[in-house]
Amino acid sequence: MIQIQILKYSRQMARRIKEDVFRGILEFLYYFYAGAVLILTARINLGKNIFEMDWDLLIILDACRVDAMIQIAPEYDFIQNVDVATSVGSSSDEWLAKTFNKKHADKIAKTSYITANPNFSMVIDERLAPPIHAPVPFRPSLNYYGTVSMDDFAHFDEVYKDSRGRREKVVLPSTLVERAIDAGRRSVAQKYVIHFMQPHVPYIGVPNPPSDPFQLYKNDNLSHSEIWDMYLDTLRLVLDEVQKLLNNFDAERVIITADHGEAFGEWNLYSHTICSPQPVVKNVPIVTTKSKDNREYIPQINKKSTTEWNPDEQLRDLGYL
């Protein structure tokens, strides 16, 4: 089923054009293009679905670029080679709708999905078709994609609902690792997907990260080297926790990858948008390794969040709204 919203879309775009003519026209054209691309790719993905790969443990680093992974690879023994794949999406909602497809229902039924990304709730549970953060004149429904429901997973853990920090306002990678280690030791499934929120903004790898670094960057209040260093430090923060996970989780075949990349001004694009044609957003790293539970760490599970779960508020904290 194709959802048609041309009248609503035209009204929204008219308001945006009135506020900023040039930007409004660009958005009008881009999201018209995005709607068409979503329909064309809903059933014929141009990227590599993660379930077409061989893994027992899949680690997703949200918004991780290939070149960033290559740059810091020498700092981590578990990163021997960094290969490249094309993602099925250029935003988390698009990636979720296309990844968890009924074509792979047999594998999904054996999978535990442990995630810090709130888009999971909106796409898989609330059944909101992408883009859920931007208007389009037409788009496929989730049934058209063939996206599965919550009941199709062996197990899932929406960590963002109960374990976010007051200062960071997102799930810390250390918290996600605790939940992953606990699930792995209880053998709740045969396959595991651990979806970290980092190195996506906010850049919690640095003290007092700016709430909107890309706006500061576009306004020349942050240099490229400054925002890039924030990004790399946040990537290091999550990879330090990935190392802990690899030392406390039994899995013969481990893949570390990303749902999408991130743009830092290439083609005059910033962050990531749905249906982005930008290679630094569509291409993702592929790192193959192993993990062994050496019982080096005992997780301390605390499901009492210091902030109340509010979908719109958290999406705003992540820069979507």
- Measured on Cα atoms, how large is the radius of gyration? 19 Å
What fraction, in percent, of the residue positions are helical?
25-40%
The helix/strand order is EHHEHEHHEHEHEHEHHEEEHEH
Number of spatially distinct domains: 1
For the record, the CATH architecture stands as: 3-Layer(aba) Sandwich
Largest sheet: 7 strands, mixed
Helix/strand/pairing class, anyone? alpha/beta
Mean pLDDT: 93
Strand content: 15-25%
CATH top level is: Alpha Beta
Number of strands: 11
How many helix segments?
12
Uncertain stretches: none
Describe this structure in words.
The chain is globular, with a radius of gyration of 19 Å. The chain has 12 helices and 11 strands. The protein has a 7-stranded mixed β-sheet with strand order 3-11-8-2-7-4-6. Strands 1-5 form a two-stranded antiparallel ribbon. Strands 9-10 form a two-stranded antiparallel sheet. The model has no long low-confidence stretch (mean pLDDT about 95). It has a single domain (about 45-130, about 145-315), classed as Alkaline Phosphatase, subunit A (3-Layer(aba) Sandwich). By secondary structure, it is α/β, with parallel strands linked by helices.
